[in-house]
Amino acid sequence: MVRTLPSRRHLARALTLMPLVALGACKPAVDVAPPARPTLSLKTATTPSGAKVEPAVYAPTPGAPGALMSLAPLVDTVKGAVVNVEVQARARPAMGGMLQGLPPGIAERFGMQGNPFGEGGAPAKQGLGSGFVIDPSGLVLTNNHVVEGADTVRVKLEDGRAFDAEVLGRDALTDVALLQLKGVSGNLPFVKLGDSDGLRVGDPVMAIGNPFGLASSVSAGILSARARDIHAGPYDDFLQTDAAINPGNSGGPLFNMKGEVVGMNTAIIGGATGIGFAVPANLIQALLPQLQETGVVRRGWVGLAVQDLTPELARALRVDAPKGAVVAGVSAGGPGAKAGLREEDVITSVGERAVDSAGALTRAVALLKPGSEVKVGLVRGGKQLEVPVKLGTRPTQRGEEEMTPRDSTPAPLSKRLGLRLSEARDGDGGAQVVAVEPGSAAERAGLAPGMVLTQVGDQKVSSVAEAAQALTSAEPGAALLLRARVPGQDGALLRAIEVPQR
Question: In the structure, what pLDDT confidence band is assigned to residue 132 with cuts at 50, 70 and 90?
Fold first, then answer.
């Protein structure tokens, strides 16, 4: 009997991020017909370090002209850069109630409906995942859900070496994390990110990882589909593959036949076989600079509620556009409202990127730098228009983890006042409060996350640096007047903070 896929309504429920578990039972292997000969160029290439890359071997065989004979040369070239990621976290006491002892999201990812550890809380977390080295200095890419909440991270190479690792940056919305190995002298084997946009459905791909704790396991298949939205987040744009992916493959590389990483293996469909998903390499490449420099990803934001343009909506709106994103709502005071965007506008492009759906608009804006200006192409009342929009910074949504950049707040400010700041996200300048320590001077002053400081004492401030300088230079015991705004609300708030004695 053939197992059928779940209905669209239940698809999101069936999708399971690969959990961080060690050994488990595996189903028997199934013979799979070899993929068709790819159209990729199979000329010998080299890695960035100059090492020779051997492509997969193809040769005519009886009954199967051009069939794939062996991936061994390709595996030998790249497997040294694929690593095992081991994580540990301290035990967390229960906070009362079902599942409250588990880290946020873990139970849902594992498909749990109740706390398997009872009311005593979760034991120490231990997990295994995969990753890959992208620079000889020891930069490693893996999944956010592999290292999220970890107290210690240790990375093991294929040659037996092991290193402690620091989490340089994480982005929960795309499930990407960047690690830095400690004590590395350089000259590690590494692989490079390839062009995931150049992949075609049917192209052969290969996965290497650590499924069920079985290190350096290799599987192969084809690219099954592109741009999959699996309802994991607002920026879903996954590659789908039938290469075998299992728990423990999380964070491992998906290679093309030239030895380039075209994706990071991330998710599977629970109860299904031959259906796995990978974050595209081009998306990872776009996030890397921010992860390396600040540890977090800040995305452009327009402040619109949008939906797909359907043929029915096009007729009702009298729009002669086959595809696009219809503006269903405009956030008051947001970048879109300030630029003059209106409800029922049909957005067809952002900069040089065509927009054919609401998801495409969300992804296109998210890749742009906050504070930058972009031209938005749209149809309004049957006329083609181009509207310049100055982007804000996407605010953290309810239920999302609040991430702060490395060294965003000077240590004296955080220790002295109990206040953590980041650059304002609405594009209007200022220092945004992202955290307030209980019992601190900041809490007593009535400051709260989300407020944006625009004045400290007699000084107008437009950045974290200016706000920090004004706060840290204040005399001990002084009372400073603070002026703040709340994004999306009119008017200003006045607060007074008393500077503690040193």
Answer: very high
Contact between 392 and 426 under an 8 Å Cβ cutoff? The reply is yes
Residues 6+ apart with CB under 8 A from 392: 300, 301, 302, 303, 334, 335, 370, 371, 425, 426, 427, 428
Any alpha helices (H) in 244-357, and if so which ranges? 281-293, 311-316, 335-339
Give the pair of three-digit tokens for residue 416: 């002295």
pLDDT of residue 220: 93
Amino acid at residue number 404: T
Query: pTM, whole model, 2 decimals?
Result: 0.68
Does residue 345 have an active-site annotation? no
Q: Which of 130, 135, 145, 440 is catalytic?
A: 145
Residue 278: pLDDT over 90:
yes
10 in active site: no
Closest-CA residue to 300 (of 382, 236, 361): 361
How far apart are the C-alpha atoms of 418 and 377, rounded to whole Å?
44
The active-site residue, picked from 130, 135, 171, 175, is 175
Tokens of 95: 């906070």
Quick one: tokens of 413? Answer: 């400010």
Among residues 224, 250, 422, 440, which one is catalytic?
250
Residue 224 designated active-site: no
Distance CA 231, CA 238 (A): 10
Q: The tokens of 44 are what?
A: 């010998």
Question: Where would I find the beta strands (DSSP E) of 151-260?
Answer: 152-156, 162-171, 176-181, 204-209, 217-228, 238-241, 253-255
